[in-house]
Amino acid sequence: MDRLLRNLFHFEAPQSIGTKIQLRAFEFFTVIYTLLYTWEWAFYVPRLSDVVLPLGVANYLNVEIFFSELATVNAIVITLSCLIPLLFKRLRWLYVPAFLLFHLQYVTRFSQGEIPHSANLVAFSLMGLALAAVFVRDIKKSLPFAFGFTIFFLGLGYTSAAISKLVATGITWPDGQHLWLWIGEKSIDILSKTGEFQLNWLQELALSSRFIATVILTFGLVAELLGFLVWWKHLRPYVTLALIGMHIGIDLTMNIFFKTFTIQLIIMGFPWNRYINNFSKRLRSLPLKAFGRYLLY
Amino acid sequence: MLEKYKRIIGAVLLINILLVATHEGEFWPFSIYPMFSQAGKPWSRGVVEDVRDTTRSDLWETKPIEAIDNRILPLEEYGIHEIDFANYISKTRSWNAEKINGLRTTFQIDDYPGKMWMATRVVGSINEQDSVVIKAIPMFLFTPDSTYKNPNLFPNK
């Protein structure tokens, strides 16, 4: 167990420039995408009229009151609660209200029956930063904690997704016919969105052969099932590559691109700190000190 | 320090399990990630047909999607989220006046004189010949002046 925890939370050369860049890149990414989602949802919710499917805290609170400029007020509070700890590296407990209000913003926006998971990993990152601010405090330790916390729930999430498939459908889940049905379903979503739809090469290939469609689904299922292996540092880059490959496959076959997940996998799944430290001599010649004060810690 | 981290992870994991177990697998961001878990099940989505001729005989008939796919309204150009629309039209069970007006409000068709838009439910399934069959079911025709319900689906209303 301790070995697993060290794999999650220990960075080699924790005070090196490479580790600081990777951890702050993780924190910047989390805040930037929290704000992108927050404002996108704030601009959309005034169009909503009633709750179709309550999620999360919306089961206990009528979020229809946020179908107004209150969603914008919420977005302003989230923005301040994220930017102050990010840029000034103090009052980091503000990540706690930022996370809680981010949840509120999500359940307000997605009260119409759709349950998207594209922002889940960003939310886990924000939750990790919030917990770190409360329980760890020292930024030198809190950022590695938030990073490891996110990696833990990233691996758990992918493996859970695979288990859900095996429980709900069974071992026949990867049957190529199922992919045909999903391609048809997503073609209707694209048709509804843009007024037109054309099959791409991978969709045509999958539809031409049940065996090929089965191979595509099998790869996706295995990649997800092995997702928990990202918990171990030496396996992380390989599992990350498989998961990124799976996301590209989902995009090509079902026109659903998990852009945020993919970017976060790239930031977190590879030992960038080691790569950067290997080039640290060259980096020293760059004007890092001027920016380092704000960008690093 | 690792002992502390272990306790935090354990506590959050416990909260995760309790919340998803009591909220049908979803308490964002906690989730069992059930998307695409039920494979092979028939599905239901939605499109809006841009109707040009209301006198044609198959206006209210259920038909293959190919019969209307050259006149589908691109919802993104009208600021309507296609997934929200699909969920609204496919998951609403009781079409009372409030629900129908909610759909009409989403379209804001009053701003488009001369337009006639058919809110259409689309269903897909695999038939006995192992082929995917996609059918379009007309539900409501919206014009700037009126709303018409499919007489085959709502005969007495």
Characterise the protein shown here.
Chain A: Keywords: Membrane, Transmembrane, Transmembrane helix. Chain A: This is HTTM domain-containing protein. The complex is a heterodimer of chains A (297) and B (157). By secondary structure, chain A is mainly alpha-helical. Chain A is globular and about 55 Å long. Chain B has one domain. Chain B is built from three helices and seven strands; from the N terminus they run H-E-E-E-E-H-H-E-E-E. Chains A and B meet through helix 1, helix 4, helix 5, helix 6 and helix 7 of A and helix 1, strand 1, strand 3, helix 2 and helix 3 of B.
**What summary fits the major beta sheet of chain A?**
none
Determine the fraction of residues in helical runs of chain A and give it as a percent range: over 70%
In angstroms, what separates the terminal alpha carbons of chain A? 30 Å
The geometry of chain B reads as elongated
In total, the number of domains of chain A comes to: 1
Mean pLDDT of chain A: 92
Query: Which structural class do you get from the secondary structure elements of chain B?
Result: alpha+beta
Helical element count of chain A?
14
**SS-derived structural category of chain A:** mainly alpha
How far the N terminus sits from the C terminus of chain B, by CA atoms, comes to 68 Å
Percent of residues in helices of chain B:
25-40%
Determine Rg of chain A (CA atoms, Å): 21 Å
Q: In one word, what is the shape of chain A? A: globular
The number of distinct helices of chain B, counting runs of at least 4 residues, comes to: 3
Q: What integer value in Å does the Rg of chain B equal?
A: 21 Å
Number of domains of chain B: 1
Describe how the helices and strands are arranged.
The complex is a heterodimer of chains A (297) and B (157).
Chain A lengths: L1 H8 L7 H28 L25 H19 L6 H15 L10 H16 L3 H30 L7 H19 L6 H8 L1 H16 L10 H19 L4 H11 L2 H7 L1 H5 L3 H8 L2
Chain B lengths: L1 H21 L3 E2 L2 E2 L11 E8 L12 E2 L17 H10 L5 H11 L9 E10 L5 E11 L4 E3 L8
Antiparallel strand pairs in B: 1-2, 3-5, 4-6, 5-6, 6-7
